[in-house]
Design a protein that fits this description.
- The structure is a homodimer.
- By secondary structure, the first copy, chain A, is α/β, with parallel strands linked by helices.
- In chain A, about 40% of the residues lie in helices and about 20% in strands.
- Chain A folds into 2 domains: about 100 residues, Alpha-Beta Plaits (2-Layer Sandwich), CATH 3.30.70.150; about 260 residues, Ribulose bisphosphate carboxylase, large subunit, C-terminal domain (TIM Barrel, Alpha-Beta Barrel), CATH 3.20.20.
- Chain A has an 8-stranded parallel β-sheet with strand order 12-11-9-8-7-6-5-13, with helices on both faces.
- The longest helix of chain A has 19 residues.
- The relative contact order of chain A is 0.12.
- The mean pLDDT of chain A is about 95.
- Chains A and B meet through α2, α3, α9, α10 and β10 of A and α2, α3, α9, α10 and β10 of B.
């Protein structure tokens, strides 16, 4: 009735030992059969469909670590149902946090993951052996032409990847088609003039029935990458975008609306799993997240854990780029180079404007900081 | 450049007065222009696109309430971008909770909301003046034929709405098409025999590129309603399902994977907004959530706040049914009738099996408890 292949989920459980163990037993049932086990008549359902406790250990006072295995068949090989088995109903119960995933090879082979990954994206940008530079056109309210002029300056200054601010969708100030046209043309013009290889990444987060259409339109209009916020459109729609051969553009995952999953120490999903393992499984080539020391709340240790997850072995699923952003400024770059090494995409928005009124010059300075330093190759 | 129409979001902010006020000022910027305001040259962007603080007041020690207004144009009249303006980036910052929405009529008119609502669903079920009865076929592992036999018993026993367990998608044990065929036929057969009006609700939560297809297939095969988990497929896909005239079935919203938004007292989205206002705006006809006193963590007060939100005036958006579930058992019904009144859908799963081996008889007893009592009409 089942193949015997199982995948593992490591949970952190809050409570005293007896309560924590009872919680783990409950997870095995809640995430699968959701039915009183004593009333299940089929032995194989009780033994194979219900989750199994593979490990249970003490971590610290009132904190336990448990590993549960699930039959791969429970997921129907769907990302939505996989997420449901991992953390569907128990997201509603206190004291349970998803800490690590260890997906079996058969299950992993059902997913394509990122189309480009680190290697593919570097090839596209012709940028080897150094961190990549990333910025956003904004603020909301500017016209498509004004946003295009900004994109042009960024590209002339040597920024590799120029994206829409994540709040730009289809506002009347700069409608989707107009914005993409201007921004893509501007980056293209700059490349022709400078010999650069910058790409424009369109934000296509939007209505469910328009996302794929916007992706195709953006590509036709010259965008060379796509950004989506998976918490808004669904992780599985990101997967679909990554797998669609008629689109075939790199995908940048934005963390908007995702914050509550990591807001509590006793509930939710670890940064490692959410920004690393799940985002990667769902096909992103780069995972954007708030950097430490900026205006958000992630610690340096958390950022390092995300970076580790972007490259941890996951069958044939490629490693992707960590892309810290949010409050990154030019003076921080030397320290960040030491932390992240060369396999990183630095997303700098306001920081590129604050240095002085000449944006192009600020970008060149950013590029020099990156290229001049060998901190990351140490 | 903007119409002047603005909508309001009430946030609860944790911190001392100065820190809380600074946080509110930051929200105005972060959720709109995401750009240093002092560097914005266009006055109208600074004045109209940036959020405005409409109110700021002390609630209790280290807790403040703030109302921010946003220009409706910032949302592009898209549900995804509306959620992004309300809580996109700031979900990543500590100490901010979305407490209430007050959406303007122009913005509300961009959304259809539920197709049926309370009134439409009652008409469909021909069930007036009493709570509705709701159950699920399970456990995962049963064959389509076995699930069908269960559905038949529930319908014969007088359960109004019989749904798939939320973990049943397209597992090999009972593939989607087979399951829908058996369950829909079983409920139909029972109706013909008893004169009942029970409906079968298919769980169509699944891959992004299959959800609409599954909805249409389920309808063709005889399902009379659909269930989705918006946290897994995206709230906007639920909206799309509700608006699609070729589908035109009532939508039941399931809370799987949604728990982290309400897990913290200082971060997230209130139950009122999440299970009430947003779920309703996104087109659900009933909002399923964990009942108090069951195996989940919602309090009675929280459940009452969700119920209030299902019927609070929202322009032309219809009132919907609160549908408490999760650990509801027959002995609890008298108390629940007093709390919820008649406008409620009681979702009972395991509770219907625990009373004794004759499921049909258990259902009839449930129905009698509901019809016999006048507690709710008091």
């Amino acid at each position: 009735m089942v193949s015997g292949e199982r995948f593992l989920v490591e949970y952190l459980i809050t409570g005293d030992e007896a309560a924590a163990y009872a919680k783990v037993q409950d997870i095995c049932v809640e995430q699968t059969v959701e039915f009183p086990p004593e009333l299940i008549r089929d032995t194989w359902i009780k033994e194979d469909v219900v989750g199994k406790i593979e490990n249970f250990e003490y971590v610290s006072n009132n904190l336990f670590k448990a590993v549960i295995s699930y039959a791969v068949e429970t997921t129907a090989y769907e990302l939505t149902q996989l997420l449901n088995v991992i953390y569907g109903n128990i997201s509603l119960k206190p004291g349970i946090l998803v800490n690590r995933l260890d997906l079996s090879l058969g299950l992993l082979s059902a997913f394509h993951g990122p189309r480009f990954g680190r290697e593919g994206l570097r090839k596209l940008l012709q940028a080897e052996g150094r961190p990549l530079l990333f910025t956003a056109i904004k603020p909301m309210g500017l016209s498509a032409a004004e946003l295009g002029r900004l994109a042009y300056k960024f590209a002339c200054g040597g920024i590799d990847i120029i994206k829409d601010d994540h709040g730009l969708t289809n506002q009347p100030f700069a409608e989707f088609t107009e914005r993409i046209k201007y921004a893509a043309a501007a980056v293209n013009k700059a490349n022709l003039e400078t010999g650069g290889k910058s790409i424009y990444v369109a934000n296509i987060t939007g209505p469910s029935d328009e996302v794929i259409e916007r992706a195709r339109l953006a590509k036709r209009l010259g965008a060379k990458g796509l950004m989506v916020a998976p918490a808004l459109i669904g992780f599985d729609t990101m997967r679909l975008l990554a797998e669609d051969n008629s689109i075939a553009l790199p995908i940048f995952s934005h963390p908007a609306f995702l914050g509550s999953f990591t807001a509590s120490e006793t509930n939710g999903i670890s940064h490692y799993v959410l920004y690393g393992q799940i985002t990667r499984l769902a096909g992103a080539d780069a995972t954007i997240y708030p950097n430490f020391g900026g205006r958000f709340s992630f610690s340096k240790q958390i950022c390092e854990s995300i970076t580790a997850a972007t490259a941890v072995p996951m069958g044939k699923i490629k490693p992707i780029f960590p892309s810290p952003g949010g409050g990154i400024t030019l003076p921080l770059i030397p320290e960040l180079l030491e932390v992240y090494g060369e396999d990183v995409i630095f997303l700098m928005g306001g920081g590129l404007v604050k240095r002085g009124p000449d944006i192009e010059d600020n970008c060149r300075y950013f590029r020099q900081l990156i290229e001049g330093s060998k901190a990351y190759s140490a």
